[in-house]
Specification:
This protein is of the alpha+beta class. The protein has 3 domains: 108 residues, NADH Oxidase (3-Layer(aba) Sandwich); 103 residues, NADH Oxidase; 75 residues, no CATH class. The chain has 12 helices and 10 strands. A hairpin with a 4-residue loop joins β3 and β4. α1 packs across α2, α4 packs antiparallel against α10 and α5 runs antiparallel to α12. The longest helix is centred in the first third of the chain and has 20 residues. It is globular, with a radius of gyration of 19 Å. It binds flavin mononucleotide (FMN).
Amino acid sequence: MDVAAFRALEPLCWRAPSAHNTQPWRLRYEPQAIRVGWDESRTLPVADATGRDLRLSLGAFVETCLIVAADAGLRLEYVADHDERHRRVGWLRTAEHRYPTPFRTTDVWERRTDRGRLTDGPEQDTLAALDAVARHAGGAVRAVPEPDRLGALLRAADRQLYADPAVVAELRRWLRLDPTHPSYDADGLSDRCLALSRPAAAGLRAALAAYPLLRPLGLPRLLAAADDPLARGGTVLVLVAPADLDPAGQVEFGRVLLRVWLALHTAGLVAHPLSQLIDVAATRTALGALLDVTPDRLMHVARVGRPTGAAPRSARRPGGG
Ligand SMILES: Cc1cc2nc3c(=O)[nH]c(=O)nc-3n(C[C@H](O)[C@H](O)[C@H](O)COP(=O)(O)O)c2cc1C
């Protein structure tokens, strides 16, 4: 494999999605292969204590690397070699053939999380195609059968997360609510990507700055009530994994997640993840019951639909991984 050619493609690979846009991946070029690992300082030890979203993000990054390389005519394959202690998920190395994928670099470049207003959810045949992508890896994509019950679950999840000072402190570290923030164009969640107006961004900044004072006065409840993504339309889909998935299996499911998102993108649809529903034990259990699936199999939840405008492109670090 032409290592220099792959290096030149790295900025495209960094378009991979990651929770809170932390971009946790690290590539290290070794004589025989490229090591894929992660940077501990870019993990979310509080909000993502189990590391599920870290591993999904790393898998999404691996899949992105394979797609970008294949589209450039490079023969690259991934070999899983999970090592938690050394913060490694596996290796990218020269393959005999180009990675087979229906997706192109333009899909990687154009895909974005869209937290705005959505119209129709996916049609039955699109849903079946998404489900087929997950089934290939032993999983499934399911639409939530009683969507009316989700509003209360979402508010309960948000309330619980906003009530935890450690979760809020970690979120603040990755919020970029003011364009003068030094990392505004590098990483994290910007006011624009969160679809916040200037006054709303300023209000949220002020509320979070006063959090220690306002928390006992009911700020968590207020923050949870302030946004109602479900009112902005779409269908809520859940990515379900096989039972007892180990860490390497979760990375594999990050690859599946990216394929699902790119399949949505090529169908003219977008996704807005709602991970809080499965981050909080009580709402995760309730969602599992709605789907008749054991809660540990729920990998990812997102509101999906047709966009009504173009979502802003999220930031990436200029130096990348
Ligand atoms: C595993 C995972 C979990 C995510 N969870 C959420 C979430 O709960 N809420 C949300 O608004 N975005 C969530 N996102 C979307 C990221 O914030 C988004 O991918 C990142 O900011 C980069 O933006 P992009 O997807 O437009 O490239 C998640 C992304 C991943 C990969």
